[in-house]
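for the writeup, i need someone to sanity check this before i put it in the appendix. the sequnce is what the collaborator sent (i think, or maybe the updated version? ugh). structure was predicted straight from it, no edits. if anything looks off just tell me and ill rerun, i have time this weekend
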Amino acid sequence: MTDSKKSTSQTAEAEQMETVRRLILGDNDSVVTQAVRNNAREIVTDVFSEALHDRENHDGSVNTVLVPLVEKSVEKSIATHSEQYVGYLYPLVGSLVRKSVTAFITEILEKTNALIENSLTIKGLKWRFKARQAGISFSQYVITQTFDFRVEQVFLIHKETGLLLNSVAQDLKTGADADMVSAMLTAINDFVSDSFKPHQSHSEQSLDVIRTEDFTLIIKPGPSAVIVAAVTGNTPQHIANKLQTTLEDIHKLYDQELSQFNGDTSAFENSENQLRECLVSELKPEQAERKKKPWFAWIIFISLLLGLGYMAFTRFQTQQTLSKVRLIEQQAGIIVTQLSASGLSAIQLDILRDPAAIDPLAWLSANNIPTKNLTITQRAYLSLDTEIVKNKVVSIMNHYPSIEISWTNASPIFNGEITSLEKLSLQNELAKVSGLNFDYTWLASLKITDLEQELANDPVITRAILDLNIAKIDRLTVAFEKGQSQLSTESISTLVTVKNQFNRLIQLAESQGLSLGLVIMGATDSVGSAAFNRRLSQTRANVVKTKLQELGIEDSRLNAIGLGTIDLPSTDEGARKVLFNVIYFAASE
């Protein structure tokens, strides 16, 4: 009885307290709620920073939540204000590029070192053999031998539907190996259907680990999602703990999205940050120590740099040599037809060279140009350069030490004493020098030391005089207009000279027991048909022959021949001529 009264008294007091509470706080605490709402900004402002700090220290969830939001905000800001960001980031570009290059070179060294250690060594060959025996790729076997363990991929799967919400991989390219991902998802869907859906007994069976030949799947189920990690190597316990912690964080952050999931995975894009924290790896102690000293990579890298430096320096030297060798074209009587480099240092030099020009090897030596890798090909040609002509004259005069030579512009002046025979020989040699335009008056100042009688009785001198005068007639020509065979006044004057010289030669030849003849050769240019040109050349030769007969040369000593077309590079009057050739033979008794 007493207990019943006591219970009734407590109930009445509770009802009274509830009545007082409603009077003070209002229905559903509306008075307090409204007061908090009215002052929420001031209240939150005073404790916002401290609250964020305390929550971050407690479980680190603030950073996890804010990072995706900040990333999206920055992405949107850059998209809408790109020009401003360019101005902000411009001063940092240089530093970023340098850091990027440094990181790139470091990565090359590490990869090169791994390639050398794992491929070009006995160990690498041994690993290849064992990988073939195991039926796996060499890269997979290297990973098993290099890493104690490594989380290759992490998948976040919706528990109810078995759909993939998000995934990450070590190489940052989750879609790079489509076959692997597809196979993985198929297996995951199978065990999700069998393991993660509730049974009639309202109990759930779960799979913690699935082992394959290539990797181990670690599965951590949660109320609404499952996290799966593909691990190679020996899986330590802290990997499973890390997965469990990550799964709990995802359930906290995405509780509403998971409970209301309708097949749209876009709400889980920001979960990549949490999943990527699970991509951990650990090198084996031996490999970790070697990674710090990539000596082989450094040796290869330095050797490559030295090789490239040597090639660049050799190429630079070759270009310098080419520039120096090209200057040889400035020498008189030398024309460079080809100058090229092949390979690193080989040089080919092809030139046209007048025999009187400087020797190329002597010029190269005088200019300190190495000839070790230089190949020279020479072809002869006739130069009309003034310096070359002078060199030829000087070369001839070396055989006549008693004669001094001086030059007035391009014309030589000779002084000294000489015999008649030497004078005739000198005349003949100088007359053969192309480009000199020899004039017999140049030798008029020379003093003849022979006696006149000795000159007349010397058959050698007489024969030399004969040859010299024959050469004079051989150099004479008669020119014609295009398609014409009429003689001009200038041509008739030339024929008078031919007649006078030829008649003097007849007397000189008879004193030597010789008989003279004059061959008259007509020629045309390439204009017109071949038949027309043959007739025209013969007509021109006949006209000249007739004129020489009129001037007093016996017909028996003249022979007119039509040569037809003379193929010259040009069709100027050089081909429209009549040429002369004096022949002699022993007179019959």
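Residues 113 and 299 are 10 Å apart (CA to CA). Residues 82-119 form the longest helix (38 residues).
thx in advance!!
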